[in-house]
Specification:
Elements: H1 12-22, E1 31-33, E2 41-46, E3 50-55, H2 63-75, E4 87-89, E5 99-103, H3 117-130, H4 154-164, H5 170-182, E6 190-192, E7 201-204, E8 207-211, E9 218-220, H6 228-231, H7 236-246, H8 253-275, H9 280-295
Helix pairs in contact: 3-7, 4-5, 4-8, 5-8, 8-9
Length: 296
C-alpha cells in the first residue's frame, strides 16, 4: 500500500541484496515481509530474531542514525524493551536512505481493543520513566514537531478542522483545542516518545512488553506522551489510572493533561484529510481519537 506520492517501495529482494552487500553476517537469513509498517517505514523480518526498517520517505531518512544514537540511552531507563539498532545500513542498490536492523520484539499491538488495566498502568510508568532520562545533548524539538509549544500548530489544526468537514464535530473540536492552547506552557522539557499510538505498543499476557517506532522522539513538552488517554479505548478507571501514573511528579499535571488532549487532536485531526483515501483504516481511527479527546 502506497501512502505517499513520493514513497519509495521496498521489496524483500532489495532488502536481501542490501543485507548481503553491507551486513554479510546475516546474509544467510531469510528475508520476508514483516508486519504492516506505519506512515514512514516498510518492515521486513530477517530470520526469526531480527527486523529490517526501510524508510518509505525522505522525512524518515535520519531515523536510523537517531535510533542508534539515543535508544541505547533510553533503554537503560525504561521498564520495557525498545528496538535499539544492531546495525545501520547505508544507501545502496538503488535505495536512497539509511536503513537499520533491529531486534525482533515479542508482543502484539492492541489493534482491536485496549491494553487492559495492568498494561495501561505499565504504559503510564514508561511515560513517567522517560522523564528521568538525562536530557543533556538530546535532540530538542523544533518547528512544528510533537513536543513544541502547541501554539505553533494552531494554523495547521484549524485548517485540518475545516478540511475534515462533517467527518468531525468541528465546533466541539475547536473548543477543546482552544482549551488546550489556554493551558500553561510546559514547566519542563523532558524526553518523550512522541507517537504513542496503539500500533507502537507491544503487549503479551496482559502486560506491556515493548514500545517501538521512536522516530518522533526528542526533548520537549512531556504532555505529548499523554495521548494514549484518548488514543486507546480505555475504561474510565483505566484512563484515571493512566493519568495518575503518567503525570506523577509533573509540576503542572492539570495543564499537562489539557495539552495532552491538544496533542491528541494534533495527531488525529491533521491525519484525517491526508489519509482519508490513502489509508482509510488509519483515518477512521483518527476520527475516533478526535471524538475521544472531545468526550473525555
Amino acid at each position: 500500500m502506497r501512502l505517499h506520492d513520493d514513497e519509495f517501495v521496498s521489496t524483500p529482494d532489495l532488502v536481501r541484496r542490501l543485507v548481503v552487500a553491507q551486513q554479510p553476517q546475516w546474509a544467510g537469513l531469510t528475508v520476508r515481509p514483516g508486519p504492516q509498517g506505519g506512515t514512514d517505514h516498510h518492515l521486513f523480518r530477517l530470520g526469526d530474531d531480527l527486523l529490517v526498517r526501510m524508510p518509505k520517505i525522505a522525512w524518515a531518512q535520519d531515523h536510523a542514525l537517531a535510533d542508534a544514537r539515543w535508544l541505547p540511552l533510553l533503554a537503560a531507563h525504561l521498564p520495557v524493551e525498545i528496538p535499539a539498532p544492531l546495525a545501520v545500513g547505508e544507501p545502496g542498490e538503488g535505495f536512497p536512505y539509511r536503513w537499520s536492523v533491529v531486534p525482533w520484539l515479542e508482543g502484539e499491538p492492541p489493534v482491536t481493543g485496549g491494553l487492559g488495566a495492568d498494561a495501561t498502568r505499565d504504559l503510564g510508568e514508561v511515560v513517567a520513566a522517560l522523564r528521568t532520562v538525562p536530557t543533556d545533548g538530546g535532540p530538542v524539538k523544533e518547528g512544528t514537531s510533537r513536543g513544541v509549544p502547541l501554539s505553533r500548530l494552531d494554523d495547521d489544526v484549524r485548517a485540518a478542522i475545516t478540511a475534515s468537514g462533517n467527518r468531525i464535530d468541528g465546533p466541539a473540536v475547536t473548543k477543546v483545542w482552544e482549551r488546550a492552547l489556554d493551558a500553561r506552557p510546559a514547566a519542563e522539557q523532558t524526553w518523550l516518545h512522541g507517537d504513542l499510538l496503539p500500533g507502537n505498543l507491544l503487549a503479551r499476557d496482559g502486560r506491556l512488553t515493548g514500545v517501538i517506532d521512536w522516530g518522533a522522539m526528542g526533548v520537549g513538552d512531556p504532555a505529548a506522551d499523554l495521548i494514549p488517554a484518548w488514543g486507546l479505548p480505555l475504561a474510565d478507571a483505566e484512563r484515571a489510572d493512566f493519568r495518575a501514573t503518567a503525570t506523577a511528579g509533573l509540576a503542572d499535571p492539570d495543564d499537562a493533561w489539557q495539552r495532552g488532549r491538544g496533542w491528541m487532536l494534533v495527531q488525529a485531526v491533521i491525519a484525517l484529510p491526508y489519509y482519508w483515501d490513502r489509508w482509510p483504516a488509519f483515518a477512521r481511527a483518527s476520527q475516533a481519537r478526535a471524538a475521544a479527546a472531545v468526550a473525555n
